[in-house]
Amino acid sequence: MNENVFKLEEAGYYFFNEVFYQINEVLSLMVAGEIFGKTILDIEPESNDKMPSIPEHIIDSLNYNGFVLSEHTISKMNGAWARARVDAKHSILKLKRKDKINRIEVLGHIINLSLLVESSLNKQLFLLQESGEIENSIFKSLDRSEVLSKLMFIFKDQILNKSLKIDRIKHLVSLRNQAVHYKASSTKSIDLSIEDLLCIWEQIGELLELVDGHLGKADIMKHKNQLIEKWID
User: Fold this and answer.
1) C-alpha–C-alpha distance, residues 217 and 96, integer Å
2) Cα(21)–Cα(7) distance, rounded to whole angstroms?
3) pTM of the entire structure?
4) Is the dihedral of CA 197, 219, 112, 124 positive or negative?
């Protein structure tokens, strides 16, 4: 195997493994949050616990170090969260497909998922150049282009005859741009439900079936089904 192809294949496996490790952690944290939200109601506050005064200006809130909870109350809350993290791994509690993914850790999943797509397309583009199917000048131009340009060039026929749908992949690319340039507006732009994510995985599985290599739709579906069985109603 050409060394460049080997490295691109290796990168694909790395991003693939990171993607499903990260989303398993995200879903686990969401379930833990549900458990913690219930158990925290049983924590009795100390008599000297108090609500903080709200700083008038945003910059003041960033520097606010006011005393709010006693160390004893904080310790009980930390203990409740630690138990919720453990209990989540064995809980029968399930997340709904319509649930929004509200954990900041999903940014890593979005970025690595888009990198899985891009590294797969880069490998396919390189193979087309190596086989002489595209000229070197075209390869160099496409190699510097955005991921959607590569996708639509390589699989134009499949996209036009609708055997490959890419609307969810387009959504992923948009989410990825928000994630890597994370700013105040991104907090509202990254609006993703569990159902949205399942649909994105399905389209990526269809894409991987068309890319030369060892990863395919079956690999995506295997991990998807495991996650549904473990975390999703």
Assistant:
1) 24
2) 21
3) 0.87
4) negative
Nearest by Cα to 201 from 233, 223, 180: 223
CB of 213 closer than 8 Å to CB of 221? no
Report whether 120 contacts 215 (CB < 8 A). Answer: yes
CA distance readout (Å), 41 to 35, 37, 44, 165: 11, 7, 8, 46
Whether residue 104 sits in one domain with residue 60: no
Query: pLDDT for 43-100, tens place per residue?
Result: 887 777 665 566 666 566 556 555 577 788 888 889 999 999 999 999 999 999 999 9
Residue with tokens 């200006």: 57
Burial 144-175 (b: 16+ CB within 10 A, else e): eeebbebbebbbeebeeeeebebebbebbbeb
Residues 82 and 167 in one domain: no
Q: In terms of C-beta density within 10 A (0-12 exposed, 13-18 middle, 19 or more buried), how is residue 16 classed?
A: buried
Do 23 and 106 belong together in one domain?
Answer: yes
Domain that holds residue 166: 3-30+96-231
